[in-house]
């Protein structure tokens, strides 16, 4: 799932929502939303490419760490960052050991080590900047993976020390993404299997005319 608005834009309502109000609204809503310190930010469902990449990666990681003490979650599990008062739904999260649930809610966790976001044209800047900064407030957060859905291009941030991160780019289909946190290797060809770049990059005006 991807947020359609930058955090600096106007929320859907001028009123302030408490976290409890947001959660109550979220349970009844048909579509997901993020929550940032009183603002509710609508999200839209991902494209087929977005869904395919998330699913491919989930399957690859599930097979690679099947018998190890990790849990993998996709976009329906909510993440809470108390220091920023921020709720969101990362595309993929990996947690070492048992999930820590916020207020015993089985739909909300607070302790991922690895977070993966599949980038869209409307959210790539947000995911690389503000959202990354929010994620860094989590003490457990160690690795951030950004996957472009319109081309073969993956970015990897690995935590070295407090406020220090290494950065690696992958842009060749015969390359493999090596996760630093648990030393799992995922070929980019597997990650992008069945992804249709032509559909993703089709001009909006031609799509509207169909």
What key phrases describe this protein's structure?
210 residues; alpha+beta; six-stranded mixed sheet; 7 helices; globular
Q: In this structure, how is the largest beta sheet organized?
A: 6 strands, mixed
- Compute the number of strand runs: 14
Q: What is Rg?
A: 17 Å
Give me the secondary-structure category: alpha+beta
Helix tally equals 7
Poorly predicted segments:
4-13, 204-210
Given the C-alpha coordinates, what overall shape results?
globular
Helix content: 10-25%
| End-to-end C-alpha gap | 25 Å
Report strand %. 25-35%
Oligomer: single chain
Summarize this, please?
The protein is of the alpha+beta class. The chain has helices at residues 19-28, 48-64, 124-128, 130-135, 188-191, 197-200, 204-209; strands at 2-3, 33-36, 39-44, 70-74, 78-81, 86-88, 92-96, 108-109, 114-119, 143-148, 154-161, 164-170, 176-178, 185-187. The chain starts with a strand and ends with a helix.
What does this structure look like?
The chain is an alpha+beta fold and 210 residues long. The protein is built from 7 helices and 14 strands. It has helices spanning 19-28, 48-64, 124-128, 130-135, 188-191, 197-200, 204-209; strands at 2-3, 33-36, 39-44, 70-74, 78-81, 86-88, 92-96, 108-109, 114-119, 143-148, 154-161, 164-170, 176-178, 185-187. A 6-stranded mixed β-sheet has the order 1-3-2-6-5-8, with helices on one face. Strands 4-7-9-10-11-12 form a 6-stranded mixed β-sheet. Strands 13-14 form a two-stranded antiparallel ribbon. A hairpin with a 6-residue loop joins strand 13 (176-178) and strand 14 (185-187). 31% of the residues are buried. Mean pLDDT is 89; it is low at 4-13 and 204-210.
